[in-house]
Write a structure and sequence with these properties.
single chain; alpha+beta; Agglutinin, subunit A; Phosphorylase Kinase, domain 1; Transferase(Phosphotransferase), domain 1; five-stranded antiparallel sheet; 47 strands; 19% helix; 27% strand; globular; receptor; protein serine/threonine kinase activity
Length: 796
Amino acid sequence: MALLLLLLFLQAPFYAQAQKNITLGSILTIQGPNTSWVSPSGEFAFGFRPLDTNTSVYFLAIWFNNIATKTVAWCAKTDKPVSVPSGSQLQLTHGGVLSLQDPAGMEIWNPRVTNINHASMLDTGNFVLYGKDGSIKWESFASPTDTILPSQVLVKGTVLRSRLMENDYSDGRFVLSVQVDGNLRFYTVAVLASSLYDPPYWDSKTGGNGSSLVFNTSGGIYYTSNSGEQLKITSATLDSPADFYHRATLDTDGVFRQYVYPRKAAQSNGWNMQWRIIDLLPRDFCKVVAGEIGSGACGFNSYCSFNINKSVDCQCPPSYSFIDNERRYKGCKQDFAPHSCDLDEAESIQQFHLVPMNNINWPFSDYERYNPIGEDSCQKLCLTDCFCVAAVHYGSTCWKKRSPLSNGISGDIVGSVFLKVPRTENPGSQFSSDSSTWKKERRYWILGSSLVLGGSVLVIIFLISLLCFGSYCTISRKKTAQPQSMSYEALPLREFTYKEIEKATDGFREELGSGASGIVYKGQLQDEFRTSIAVKRIDKMLPETEKEFAIEVQTIGRTFHRNLVRLLGFCGEGRERLLVYELMTNGSLNGFLFCGTRPTWNLRVQVALGVARGLLYLHEECNTQIIHCDIKPQNILLDENLVAKISDFGLAKLLRTNQTQTNTGIRGTRGYVAPEWFKNIGITSKVDIYSFGVILLETVCCRRNVELETDDEEQAILTYWANDCYRSGRLDLLVEGDDEAIFNMKKVERFVAVALWCLQEEPTMRPTMLKVTQMLDGSVTIPTPPDPSSFISSLQ
């Protein structure tokens, strides 16, 4: 390796190797005379960069200093980019330590080396810490982020990780890995879990013979073997490489691109003074990034095309739109109600049709295949199947595809692809093609907390009549807007007969559990899939409750989200009130956290994020805003894959527009109820956020919020104890004995900080669920949560 590095530098005609020592005691500040340490030629700088133009938050980085864009080549990271507020400083201490500290003097980052004698920002773009004997103690080249520079070598075990977005330096969806087995591989990544999807989308296939990835000083990038052979990674060359700045970056879309930038306008050769792509890998990106697990190059329900300007373009199919237009990797959502399994064949054909998707396909997500069959029959099979969202016909074979569609690609596609969408001319449709119009008219429905949803047709019709006379129990976002009535036929629910449910449960033989309003039974539908179900049998149905029962069937029946327990149908024959749900095979979060072995840290993180996404959907994304009012571990259920799903949308009080509080029927549970339930103020979605804060702490610590039988009274109430630990800088006490959590202390600190924001006594100080999810996944900076006496509401 030493010989290889020597050869690299001997080839270097255009990078000066002079260095300017940074001595012990040197300090960088965000505002002041010393904001960065610059290389001798001035071409690179190491110091503070703002996260964006409208922020007072900075991160520690290395950038190209002599160009207008100040392109970042490296940034300091722990489990996320290290960000600090104004007033922070970086110091090379007299004790020989490089330390980044916030305004309060708390250390945020250091490279974990001691006995430093001096540092240098080299003209190669490498920031180096030296010992007294001149040896390298640490260097940025050995800890790359998403970029490599000329003279840089990536040895076995080194990775590049793409950014999440162009202006978000968090770890993204793609990894370039120089593996210890001798292969160079590119992987897609599950962002939150950081697990690699296998197989890789590019592989050097060098076996045990590969050695290191080299960016030589003449602009060539190649992968070396143990025997000295070179596998070219990029092949473009320049006549005068010394006239250009060079970098190679694993970009946010997963493509490894080599860029050049003219050092002077005379070398621009007709293009603007900006970075220009001279080569890239892989060259047919959309086709190679595909796998049965994961969404592929773009998010779920979208499709990928590779533009003439060598960039990846993610697009949504007709009647779909991006979940987040700024973060398109999250995929696309349907702008219409899903196909109800309660529709018969004629109704399905009346409400939906198939549109051809020319040269677009989703090669995975198949769940059914027919052969031999014609194209018309293939389309009809999909059109009348509530599970089918797309169909492919090729030759004499038909494939049905389920949601979500994955690995979408645009190009030369073999066969005919058809996408199921609603008929826009259908007068009975409850959704327009522009979903934003519907969302502007959505109302706040405060719903409660028992697992009771459903009602008979007559009750629902009666309720609709009530709506017209103003007795509908909602809080309107627009006071002048009139409630929009919905017919029973529009609900995506099945009305079961009592005999069907009795047969499915084998005469209500096997109990799963019981609650205040009834017993839950295990069952199995007599359909082609032998669907496992949980049936809630309501045994205390008061006349006043009947209306609320019907409202919930109508409201919750429209919701459909990965992190909500799905209501399949109901029965309202006579005095029977039965609710049919998908069966959750792994019980509740209560059992998951508090009974037996502590779950792994990664599983707990996924559960917490799942609950957050479910609440985000209820509060901000579904057509009617829903406030759950009883979020607690018993009401979070886990499916066979340990995906968290919110349940128990029950019989709580509904608030009318002239109400400001509820004074009866509070269905919250001790330890999870927000303070405003007991005050003379209105109830909003912030009650759920408070409860989520409690659950988040319980998930981090694997203990109940209230444990009165404890030796230490200060630890009896988890929310109080967590606040004390956070203020005193002793979060390690919260996760004592949990080695995995201790190893992930940065994330523990992040989750606890989010929880403390959620637990603010004043509702307006609590963040929205959108802000909560952004803080949890690290996409936004988390301000220090105020003490309980504080009245700061900066997150609103």
